[in-house]
Amino acid sequence: MKTVTVFRGDGIGPEICDAVLEILKSAKAKVTFECFEVGAMEYERNGKLIPDEAYASFERNKVLLKAPITTPIGKGFRSLNVTLRNKYDLYANIRPAKSNPAIVTPFPNVDLVTFRENTEDLYVGVEKVIDEDTVHATKIITRKASERIIRDAFAYALSNHRHKVTCVHKANILKQSDGMFLAIFYDIAKEYPSIMADDKIVDNVCMQLVMHPQAFDVLVMPNLYGDIVSDLTSGLIGGLGLLPSCNIGKTYAMFEAVHGSAPDIVGKHIANPTALLLSACMMLDYLKEEETASRIRTAVDEVLKEAVSLTPDLHGTATTQQFRDAIIEHLL
């Protein structure tokens, strides 16, 4: 039985995390959990956003399920997500966006996946104040990082019966950095002749996504564009509360909801755990428990279709616990 490290997060994190763990137990997932308190509250108590024993657990277990974490505002606090991605070389951020028939949106047939390079680009956060009127930010694109995220996107497309991979870039302006990313994309595309390969400029992609999202299949892009575009794709399917996400490297894997810790609804017990639950399903797939993951996804679909136990963000009146219990009922 596999042991998974769990960061319960803060804000609504513990509420949705506990709901997800109960669902996983009810589904008889072959995993055990080592749970840790992390985030702003942990910093106030013990002076560390993530305690040493939490890091040690992740390094031992190699798999992390992470609820939303609040990074304190102020100088000296770097995003915990960025810290974890860099510390454990979680270079591939994968976010599938798929329409659910029970959720009414302008686009009923969205089924696409974004592959976001997770370790470089402007996200390295290197800025230099030149003078009081000028700041320079450094954009880093390397062959190593570009090759591995692009190769992963094509490998995913091949193994999941996808037909097309689109490279998203701004090489018309950033001719060296994004130009290299684009050139590497087409070099690797030659190794996958059965997969269609094309490219689009990032601003055009954003326009096309809100007009014809069904035209896209797998998208791969540098870090900053991936941050923006993947959030946009969540809007196509009903919002961040429905979008799962994973961050994968060669040794470690982290599965998380991409929405925030929502301090405005903490303690109201109305948070929607779907995004974290579907991220946990991606974790089960990663751990070769595809059948259990499939059962949970089916239960989620049934609860959404019934529209009886939906949380307020889905125009319902159910609590987090009622939503959880409805899913568990479909699993039993």
Automatic annotation (TrEMBL):
The family this protein is said to belong to: Belongs to the isocitrate and isopropylmalate dehydrogenases family.
Name of the molecule in the record: Putative isocitrate dehydrogenase, NAD-dependent
Stored PANTHER family: DECARBOXYLATING DEHYDROGENASES-ISOCITRATE, ISOPROPYLMALATE, TARTRATE (PTHR11835), ISOCITRATE DEHYDROGENASE [NAD] SUBUNIT ALPHA, MITOCHONDRIAL (PTHR11835:SF34)
Gene3D superfamilies, per the entry: Isopropylmalate Dehydrogenase
InterPro entries with a match to the protein in the record: IsoCit/isopropylmalate_DH_CS, IsoPropMal-DH-like_dom
GO molecular function (one): isocitrate dehydrogenase (NAD+) activity
Domain Isopropylmalate dehydrogenase-like per the UniProt entry, residue ranges: 3-327
GO term, biological process aspect, one: tricarboxylic acid cycle
